[in-house]
């Protein structure tokens, strides 16, 4: 294959060496008469598929960052090891996508320079390993974290229009090496097949917006009000979770509801704690090493008050925001203790803050006593009952009788045979579609979705019309005065048409240009073939 004009031998050699792992010049390769075989083409196709596979995993990795703190907590409960595994995920993904991207770029440049695509066996092995690693990651995601598939589907509502533009742009750039391949290859069947596949892919991409839907494609005047913020265990990015400091930080973030978890001590004192064990958020292993593995409800209130509920936050840094805390906040965090429900209700009452809580553990044999003890504290606290949002399903009818002013929040969707109307629901954000959220809004049902940390997700739910969201990142969502993007349908239609038309014109130009270049090379190639034939005849004589 002759090098096209503008592709020097040195450049071709620099591209060929890392791809083929053979440090010889491109001219020597040409003298050997090496050409890209069908076998080499199959490996290039495999490389392209691995690149796309890894690119899709990169997209998933970015999406699941919204929920990754749950994964960190899960690993800690299983292995008693705390690490921000999101960093490991992102670093590993970056290595895989960088490797496949570099190889793909080298292959495309080699094709443009007319060099053979002789992928070295080391790269072949590494590509197979890359595909296996990504496949294992997807399999693990599907087995252990299946709800993230729903998260990915929701994310397409936020990224769909931009993914479409990016995909059209990438496939348009692919027109140059594709045209070079089509005009160089001698197999008519292969040329027709590749061209048909490319055309089918481009047509599918050009028409893709017909299937793209997003709640953020709307007029500005149709945008619902900004969802209220519910602090997930307070403001856990700014203070130790389920502490009074966390509650006060949530108030500073304009949070309207403090979401927490309540347990009852062995001597009947309700207190704030999420985990059934105290090991993650206290120093129980240092104070009561022989009892560290016991359930939180096995400790009396005197024992619980001896525990440090803040130092772990500074030592383990569950969120990157911990390192940016001021010295004063660090000192305050280090002094935190486990608060009682009575203390939390008093703080909420003074801050005019609603409080929503789960009562754990639901399967405890004394759960009814837990409900009675919790209700007693609420009624004695003097907090307006409309500021109390009751989540537990157990003994809900008793709660309605003893404290009729409490607002009841249900962790399920409404059903037709509900005895009483459901006015408040609290669900994972994956469990409700945009259409359901709009319908609930029309029926005056308050919808709170959890846990929403990323601005892209908050934007989609905002456009859908959700009433409120539970978040770890109240300090981030507080600053959002508008969804990340909002496009009228007419504007999006114009962008779609312009992008497709520009892409089509560039592809036509690429094929025309590469055809002219191929015609310029043919006379030179013909003269070279005649000369080589004569030399061969003379040598045979």
From TrEMBL:
Keywords carried by this UniProt record: Glycoprotein, Hydrolase, Membrane, Transmembrane, Transmembrane helix
UniProt-listed Gene3D superfamilies: Phosphatidylinositol (PI) phosphodiesterase
Membrane topology: Multi-pass membrane protein
Domain of life: Eukaryota
GO CC term, one of those recorded: plasma membrane
Subcellular compartments: Membrane
GO molecular function: glycerophosphodiester phosphodiesterase activity
Residues of the GP-PDE domain: 227-481
KW 4Fe-4S (keyword) present: no
SUPFAM superfamilies, alphabetized: PLC-like phosphodiesterases
Segments crossing the lipid bilayer: 41-65, 85-113, 125-143, 163-183, 190-212, 493-513
Family the entry assigns: Belongs to the glycerophosphoryl diester phosphodiesterase family.
Protein's name in the database: GDPD2 inositolphosphodiesterase
Organism: Cardinalis cardinalis (Northern cardinal)
Phylogenetic classification of the source organism: Eukaryota, Metazoa, Chordata, Craniata, Vertebrata
